[in-house]
């Protein structure tokens, strides 16, 4: 898995659905080719003291290849038990779970709980990317999913894409929890994702259809979930979910883990992705988490 830097003049490329729904590639949401050379992404100061998006960011590559089922796969950093991850629909028994609890979860994604409270483990059928004579594979664990995903296997049907998104959401969250650790320094609001933070990101940095939209997204806090923001443009409806705050790249600074999901207005094409909102010595950065 890697993190792509979002830069001005470019749009989101190959948005992968680690967190919700399905990837741009799988659902047909067109992402412009990366032909524009990376540029510095600058944003306007929203209020006095608000950060500005400045330098380009380097890639982050958490290891998805290790066995999530083995006892030795554990956390890269053992500290950080108080880091909480809040992802609706990922954990059937709770909205939020501490990091240590996530690391002890079964490496089999859970679709939902049965009426008696028992977990119903998910499954996914994946096909070879080029050789359709190759038998499809039934996937039930994050370990097998990560291996086949790295070989570019994927789902073909609408139901399969939805299942693939659930695997990406569940397995991706486990992998991110493994690398999360307490930050030595945080310049992020302790009140969750704020209006100043979300508005400090230039409009072109958010996922969108076509090469650009005329207006930046208009955001409003969700009335039922204070951790979620709703945004819309002329072509897109999307949500930004505040998941966790931790140091995910071992630079000492806190990053805010977000899930950005959306769909086209009047269409069925959709996307979702884990993204990192950063505020460090380089300024503010918005990076996208995608599969390697």
The averaged pLDDT comes out at 71
Radius of gyration of CA atoms, rounded to a whole number: 18 Å
Provide the spatial order of strands within the biggest beta sheet. 1-13-12-11-10-9-8
Poorly predicted sequence stretches spanning 5 or more consecutive residues: 2-56, 66-78
Secondary-structure element pattern, one letter each: EHEEHEEEEHHHEEEEEE
Number of domains: 2
State the total count of DSSP E strands: 13
Distance between the termini: 4 Å
Mind describing the biggest β-sheet? 7 strands, antiparallel
Broad shape = globular
β content, as a range? 15-25%
Number of helices: 5
> SS-based structural class?
alpha+beta
Residue share in helix: 10-25%
Question: What oligomeric state is this?
Answer: single chain
Any chance you could write out the topology, listing elements then pairs?
Blueprint: E1 2-5, H1 24-27, E2 84-86, E3 96-98, H2 99-103, E4 110-113, E5 119-121, E6 124-126, E7 137-139, H3 142-150, H4 158-179, H5 195-199, E8 218-221, E9 228-232, E10 236-246, E11 255-264, E12 270-280, E13 283-290
Antiparallel strand pairs: 1-13, 2-3, 4-5, 6-7, 8-9, 9-10, 10-11, 11-12, 12-13
In short:
This protein has 292 residues and is of the alpha+beta class. Helices cover 15% and strands 25% of the residues. A hairpin with a 5-residue loop joins strand 11 and strand 12.
């Amino acid at each position: 898995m890697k993190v792509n830097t979002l830069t001005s003049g470019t749009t989101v490329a190959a948005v992968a659905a680690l967190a919700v729904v399905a990837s741009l590639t799988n659902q047909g949401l067109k992402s412009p080719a990366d032909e524009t050379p990376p540029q510095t992404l600058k944003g306007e100061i929203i209020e006095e003291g608000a950060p500005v998006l400045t330098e380009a960011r380097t890639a982050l590559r958490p290891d998805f290849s290790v066995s999530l089922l083995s006892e030795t796969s554990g956390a890269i950093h053992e500290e950080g038990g108080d880091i909480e991850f809040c992802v609706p629909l990922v954990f059937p028994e709770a909205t939020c779970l501490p990091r240590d609890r996530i690391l002890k979860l079964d490496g089999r994604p859970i679709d939902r709980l049965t009426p008696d409270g028992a977990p119903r483990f998910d499954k996914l059928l994946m096909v070879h990317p080029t050789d359709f004579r190759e038998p499809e594979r039934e996937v039930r664990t994050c370990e097998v999913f990560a291996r086949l995903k790295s070989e570019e296997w994927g789902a073909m049907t609408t139901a399969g894409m939805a299942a693939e998104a659930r695997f990406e959401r569940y397995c991706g969250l486990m992998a991110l929890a493994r690398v999360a650790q307490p930050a030595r320094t945080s310049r992020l609001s302790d009140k969750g994702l704020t209006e100043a933070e979300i508005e400090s990101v230039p409009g072109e940095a958010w996922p969108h259809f076509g090469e650009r939209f005329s207006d930046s997204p208009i955001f409003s806090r969700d009335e039922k979930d204070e951790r979620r923001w709703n945004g819309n443009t002329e072509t897109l409806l999307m949500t930004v979910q505040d998941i966790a705050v931790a140091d995910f790249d071992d630079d000492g600074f806190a990053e805010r883990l977000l899930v950005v999901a959306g769909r086209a207005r009047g269409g069925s094409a959709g996307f979702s992705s884990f993204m990192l909102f950063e505020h460090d010595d380089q300024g503010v950065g918005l990076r996208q988490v995608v599969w390697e």
